[in-house]
């Protein structure tokens, strides 16, 4: 044996824990702690390891006590490790194949960094090829600490965080006009008063989110704010609304972006759907590379778009001024519908999609440079100003130019009017397309964040707590892109039919966030809370009104999909939550259960055997033939020095005798049972026999040691039985049965 | 602990083995032993357990010797089984859930039958439902011994074994006429001379198979005969031909059967493909029930068909006689092709499909009542007589009646002529359909048998050695039905385009079987061997000629598919064979390797550790959180009394310290290493760390004990990490790493 002179890591003496005691009897993740600062909305490392409260810690200590003499003679297991677990020497020499590993010496100052630069993990030949392909496509991994380094100043944060909101200008006004035109092109003039109401709504909701930043300086999206102040159920409703919102943001932004392309190049129109799907795939790949590279690259298109809108608006206004601001009458459309309140409300609800993305900055406070909250609020104000100005500008110029929705987008029409068809027109369309794609991208960044927070609250599989390579939550992005691509494709790549679905989810989240802020101000009387309360109350009422209007006027034209989808998401999340709660209760027993004297031999079951002395072993080795794979499995089981029984299944008594003779030839070193299965199946009798053994003494830990031939190529797997896998499936429901496959590697 | 008074089964003293010593150094299955009786073509139980030759047995004993003192003090492992492995008491009380288990007491006379009546094995709730559904659909299981009980007399064997051959009358003549008619309907009269040549061919090949029965009284299909006398490569070619043949038998028979239906009910014509696919599905289900029930039920349709053909032939001849045997001129078809030798040869090759199935009886000798060979030969003679008579009758009457191939089958046309359109016509069509479906079914029975024999020779995955429920080789039937259904569907459910594919495979197998018999007679000069040799030589030459003719004339019209398919099957089989040979060499080492003093510490590797004393253990327990599932895994590892190391992966140093504190609270019972993975992935660093540990001392057996949460419902699996499964995949390529999942069952 090697020397084990390195020994185990120096254990630290007990230190007082810094975590506050919780009232709940269960360990919890860091979430929903009420307080004027609100819960922490940053993505934290500690979400992976649940915090243990006093009760759980006492239960843990109780289980530990059952292991035996606590501070007595040094446990022989401790000193006898046959190798150096710290890998100090070996690891360096194998630098090439190392991975993200660094051995942690608890609370020691001089840490040996054993960090390596390459990924590994899947070290099969295929795995390595896959690894290199992935690296090529999605770039090298990024350290956690890189997140903090990516803090943004206001000038960078504005273009990075505002594309979602500003790009809405490309489809919001158009969506509104598309409804109005149904009452005849003459009624398009109504877009101005409706637009005015929308501007009021924007300002009100935007102001409301300024209050959110004030109350949640660590960042708080609608989900976190609603969970915190209204309770988890309302938070969940906001979360479900946001999930739908994120999916539709991708679908609508891609649709509008492709529309900008097809307006400029009408010949591309028939290819709209495939173009959009390719864009979504590129989006996914780009996001698997992570947000890191995106920041700076995304800043330019936003400014380009702002300039583009400014350009066509100013030129359009100057043009119109030269005609005394007389509106050009739009191309005549026959009315297909009478003008009525319903139509106006529908147009209003469609136009409200121009507000999507207004909440992004309040979610992302931690990415600002300090002072985070102040910078975020100022950036939000600037963005709100830009949004309102651009929205008004587009509406007015569209009215003056007599633009009307059709196969060419409204923006493209007024761009043509203002700057002709040359280079400047191309610039406008290009920047529109780019900002829309970046907006779709911002959803791809926000969505996994939302899933992370919902996973922290046990509403979403905990897999979403783990970050993938380059900090992008790979799975989340795929989960987002697939339904988005699906919706995009089934609605034929058109923006218009997607709009009715879009408004609901967004405004449900707006309403809940603003209502939560009302509740927040009622609880926390910070300075200026009355003013905040009034602002948020107005925002809540107006947003709620939009939800109702959208529901009523758009139910039949697609909103019903969302009305079905949101409860389905909620039910799914609640099932997940319920499962995790029950799992937590089972995994972290209360002190009473942990202290249970489970050594009482009479009532012993497999449950609660948490200390070595409580475990009684039996090994069962199924042997199909006395080949080396079986001999190795028998040797493995025997070397553990636990009672071992070999089992063979034979189709006839004659064959059984033959096996017995071989067994004798080998030396008959272990007890053997031969099962005769005249039905010529092997697995079922084996599984039933093992189960029957187990039922005889359920408190035994029965380890089934299965010889397993391991092949080089996957097709060869069909050539060998997969007894281990099949036994695992057959006996999976039985507590106390452990299946161990002993690999035997074939050389070919 | 329970008493272990039952003790281990009474070991028998070494008995002389009855297996003959082999020249090969490797264990072999019972195959290809040359001898005048030929190899055993019965499905035997001993195929599952390879026979060990002297060399392998000595190697086995050598390994056994390394286990330690052979007959010294009783091994404590033997006496200390904590339960009764014979299950005498428990098992009865749980009769309801028992399965095909019967504990075998070696060589003892008074055996306690512990047999139970129900299947089990998959004992999850879903598994049980699935079990009941399967039982409902495919019937109760059948014991091995039931095979022997199903021996058939000649009167039963004839109808059971002849449908494949006799049903060919329904499409063979028609296939030939379909070619001739291309030269104009006037040339249909050529069917008579071509038919005469075919009859000569039939008699010759049929006589040849009588010789096969004589030489292989235990049964011998083309595959076994060719393997035995010409060598395994030629046997493989025959086997590949037969595989193609079986698939096409199903496709052609179903197509012809459906054609009989659509001739009677023309309105059903558009549904031909779906009807045929449903028939194939029903065929699969029927065969999963096994051959048992089939015998008697299948006898009636065969006799019905013989009667039907006799009826229309005799009535047709009598009718024709009343007109002085003047042939009615067939409906005029324009010639699309000049009459030439090529066309005549093509017609000949198509007509040769009437001979398919002629070999079935020679394969199935063991199912006859004794004297098997004599009964089989007599039955073959009767069948040959029937086939020739029916073939001639149909051709002559078709000629006299002026039938010509078209949307209505030729048989249907002459039936209409002979018996009108009433009940008798319906009877003819019904019996035709039934016998064709039974012919398809006979392929479904023969195919898995062929796979069994090829698996015994290592050409096919050994899974085909194991019989499913009710002795039907379930997988084989599915493997047969899927390509058959595929071919049937892509050829539009028509017989005609399938015919060119059909002839090749059949006649390749015929040719090889007859050639093998020639070789056989040259080696074994049994009485009458000269006559036998001449008969088989003629058969070989004629069959070979058919192969050549079919290849040349039908290559472009579909035969090329078979010409591609057969080599592909051969290559696949050879790859399988090569893998099994190398695997055998690895699994059954020669004596020298087994005797290797692998206790030499210097050069020790994991390879060749076949005795407990040679194994040095280290357990590694990955711990994600100190919950009960992890505590149980730690306790399990520690209770094995082998050196144990716990490993935790943490995203940051702070979190690592937190985990260390919990570890201290628990009691710090085991050495712990914490890996800091700043890249927020868990699996890759863990796998790399374990691999690095393993590389430090590759001769260690490193058991990774993974806590595994087991859930009740499959959707809940997405809620928990599958570390065990993923580690198994990541570390699978490393010999000496064992992954053990310790299940923790959640109550909900």
Structure explained in plain terms:
The first copy, chain A, is mainly α. Chain A has 3 domains: about 80 residues, no CATH class; about 425 residues, Amino acid/polyamine transporter I, CATH 1.20.1740; about 130 residues, Rossmann fold (3-Layer(aba) Sandwich). Helices cover about 55% and strands about 5% of the residues of chain A. The first copy, chain A, is built from 26 helices and 6 strands. A 5-stranded parallel β-sheet of chain A has the order 4-3-2-5-6, with helices on both faces. In chain A, strand 3, helix 24 and strand 4 form a beta-alpha-beta unit. The longest helix of chain A is centred in the last third of the chain and has 59 residues. The first copy, chain A, is elongated and about 110 Å long. Chain A starts with about 55 loop residues before the first helix and ends with a strand. The relative contact order of chain A is 0.11. The N terminus of chain A is likely disordered. Chains A and B meet through helix 1, strand 1, helix 21, helix 23 and strand 3 of A and helix 1, strand 1, helix 21, helix 23 and strand 3 of B.
Q: What is the arithmetic mean of pLDDT of chain A?
A: 77
Tell me the total number of β-strands of chain A. 6
Stretches of chain A where pLDDT is under 50 for at least 5 consecutive residues are 1-26, 28-38, 70-74, 88-100, 107-128, 136-149, 597-604
What portion of residues of chain A belong to β-strands?
5-15%
Q: Biggest interface and which pair forms it?
A: A-B, 182 and 181 residues
CATH superfamily of the largest domain in chain A: Amino acid/polyamine transporter I
Q: What is the structural class of chain A?
A: mainly alpha
CATH architecture of the largest domain in chain A: Up-down Bundle
Major sheet summary line of chain A: 5 strands, parallel
Radius of gyration of chain A: 33 Å
């Amino acid at each position: 044996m090697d020397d084990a002179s390195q020994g185990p890591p120096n254990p630290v003496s007990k230190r007082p824990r810094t975590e506050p005691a919780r009232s709940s009897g269960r360990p919890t993740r860091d979430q929903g702690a009420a307080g004027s600062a609100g819960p922490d909305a940053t993505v934290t490392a500690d979400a992976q390891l649940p915090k243990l409260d006093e009760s759980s810690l006492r239960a843990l200590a109780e289980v530990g006590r059952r292991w035996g003499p606590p501070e007595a003679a040094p446990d022989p297991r401790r000193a006898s490790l046959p190798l150096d677990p710290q890998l100090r020497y070996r690891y360096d020499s194998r630098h090439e194949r190392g991975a993200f590993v660094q051995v942690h010496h608890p609370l020691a100052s001089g840490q040996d960094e054993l960090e390596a630069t390459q990924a590994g993990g899947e070290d099969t030949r295929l795995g390595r090829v896959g690894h290199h392909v992935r690296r090529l496509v999605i770039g090298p991994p990024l350290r956690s600490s890189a997140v903090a380094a990516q803090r943004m100043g206001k000038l960078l944060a504005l273009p990075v965080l505002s594309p979602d909101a500003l790009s809405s200008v490309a489809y919001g006004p158009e969506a509104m006009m598309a409804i109005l035109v149904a009452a005849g092109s003459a009624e398009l003039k109504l877009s101005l008063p409706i637009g005015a109401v929308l501007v009021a709504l924007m300002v009100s909701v935007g102001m409301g989110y300024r209050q959110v930043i004030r109350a949640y300086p660590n960042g708080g999206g609608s989900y976190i704010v609603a969970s915190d102040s209204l309770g988890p159920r309302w938070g969940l409703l906001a979360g479900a609304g946001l999930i739908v919102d994120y999916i539709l943001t991708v679908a609508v932004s891609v649709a509008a972006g492709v529309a900008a392309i097809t307006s400029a190049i009408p010949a591309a129109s028939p290819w709209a759907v495939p173009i959009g799907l390719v864009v979504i795939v590129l989006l996914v790949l780009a996001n698997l590379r992570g947000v890191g590279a995106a920041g700076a690259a995304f800043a330019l298109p936003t400014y380009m778009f702002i300039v583009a809108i400014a350009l066509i608006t100013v030129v359009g206004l100057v043009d119109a001024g030269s005609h005394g601001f007389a509106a050009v009458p739009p191309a005549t459309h026959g009315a297909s519908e009478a003008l009525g309140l319903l139509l106006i409300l529908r147009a209003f609800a469609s136009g409200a999609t121009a507000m999507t993305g207004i909440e992004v900055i309040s979610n992302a406070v931690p990415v600002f440079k300090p002072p985070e909250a102040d910078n975020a609020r100022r950036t939000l104000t600037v963005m709100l100003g830009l949004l309102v100005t651009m929205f008004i500008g587009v509406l007015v110029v569209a009215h003056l130019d007599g633009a009307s929705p059709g196969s060419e987008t409204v923006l493209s029409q007024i761009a043509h009017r203002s700057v002709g068809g040359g280079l400047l027109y191309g610039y406008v369309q290009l920047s529109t397309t780019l900002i829309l794609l970046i907006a779709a991208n911002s959803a791809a960044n926000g969505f996994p964040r939302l899933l992370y927070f919902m996973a922290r609250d046990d509403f979403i599989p905990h897999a979403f707590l783990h970050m993938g390579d380059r900090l992008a939550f790979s799975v989340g992005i795929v989960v987002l892109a697939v339904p988005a691509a699906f919706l995009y494709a089934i609605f034929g790549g058109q923006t218009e039919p997607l709009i009715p679905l879009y408004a609901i989810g967004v405004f449900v989240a707006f309403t809940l966030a603003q209502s939560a802020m009302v509740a927040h101000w009622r609880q926390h009387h910070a300075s200026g809370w009355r003013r905040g309360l009034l602002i948020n109350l107005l925002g809540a009422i107006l947003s709620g009104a939009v939800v109702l209007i959208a529901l009523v006027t758009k139910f039949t034209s697609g909103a019903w999909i969302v009305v079905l989808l949101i409860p389905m998401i909620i039910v799914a999340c609640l099932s997940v939550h319920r499962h995790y709660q029950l799992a937590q209760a089972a995994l972290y027993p209360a002190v009473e259960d942990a202290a249970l004297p489970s050594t009482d031999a009479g009532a012993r079951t497999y449950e609660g055997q948490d200390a070595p002395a409580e475990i009684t072993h039996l090994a069962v080795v199924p042997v199909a033939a006395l080949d080396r794979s079986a001999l190795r499995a028998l040797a493995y089981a025997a070397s553990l020095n636990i009672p071992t029984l070999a089992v063979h299944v034979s189709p006839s008594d004659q064959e059984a005798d033959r096996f017995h003779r071989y067994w004798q030839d080998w030396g008959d070193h272990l007890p053997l049972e031969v099962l005769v299965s005249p039905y010529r199946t092997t697995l079922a009798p084996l599984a039933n026999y093992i189960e029957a053994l187990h039922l005889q003494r359920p408190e035994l830990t029965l380890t089934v040691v299965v010889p397993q031939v391991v092949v080089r190529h996957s097709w060869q797997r069909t050539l060998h039985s997969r007894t281990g896998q099949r036994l695992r499936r057959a006996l999976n429901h039985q507590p106390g049965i452990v299946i161990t496959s002993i690999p035997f590697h074939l050389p070919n």
